[in-house]
């Protein structure tokens, strides 16, 4: 089968994966390895790369709301966690843009400026979510992908090499899907993205490629359009 050809992508990195085996915080060695692979990809191709990083390794808004903190405050702290993960690495030109203004450390998110950075082959890192509570970083990835007219969202997951009909960690007979539609994701309630994010991708016809980030080289394979993981698209 012919490789998919992408010009511009949004790479959604799981925050938990950046914690490594410790399961919490940021493991510098893990971050460095991801940064090296992304930098090598940027230097060796004409691909335009934007990145959204989750903050679940530092704080989960919903978890905070279950510990006596109101949901909005918890979500704002979660957005700040994504900024902490938005680090410029590995010697490539990058720009960090945040939905919450933080002039000392990042640019404010401006769509046309983000696109211009990408056209100049700078890696753009979107931090602070959408700047509003109740929206996940998956929704950030979906909305930013639509705004910058990305060809695909690459969902790099920890402990998952694609989408299954049930949890493969607890069900040895779980079946992996090679391809799914947006509607199947929603109706089967499969854990790829939340419903808001999936609907955004469906409405804007943005393919979602779900693959494991535990295997070195997988980000490069997915970005170069190789058959990997599970692809979610229209009918």
Which ranges are low-confidence, i.e. pLDDT below 50, for 5 or more consecutive residues?
61-66
Number of strands: 11
Question: What is the H/E string?
Answer: EHEHHEEHEHEEEEHHEHE
Rg value: 17 Å
Q: Identify the strand order in the major beta sheet.
A: 4-3-5-2-1-6-10-11-9
CA-CA gap between termini:
19 Å
Binned strand content: 15-25%
Helical stretch tally: 8
Helix content: 25-40%
Secondary structure class reads alpha/beta
Biggest sheet layout = 9 strands, mixed
Shape descriptor reads: globular
Rounded mean pLDDT score: 84
Q: Can I get a quick summary?
A:
The protein is 34% helix and 20% strand.
Give keywords.
alpha/beta; 235 residues; nine-stranded mixed sheet; 11 strands; 8 helices; two-stranded antiparallel ribbon
Layout of helices and strands:
Layout: E1 8-13, H1 28-44, E2 48-53, H2 61-65, H3 71-85, E3 94-98, E4 107-108, H4 111-119, E5 123-127, H5 137-147, E6 152-157, E7 163-164, E8 176-177, E9 179-181, H6 182-187, H7 195-204, E10 208-212, H8 218-223, E11 230-233
Parallel strand pairs: 1-2, 1-6, 2-5, 3-4, 3-5, 6-10, 9-11
Antiparallel strand pairs: 7-8, 10-11
Molecular structure report:
The strands form two sheets. A nine-stranded mixed β-sheet has the order 4-3-5-2-1-6-10-11-9. The two termini are 19 Å apart. 34% of the residues lie in helices and 20% in strands. Helix 1 links the parallel strand 1 and strand 2. It has eight helices and eleven strands. With 235 residues, the chain is of the alpha/beta class.
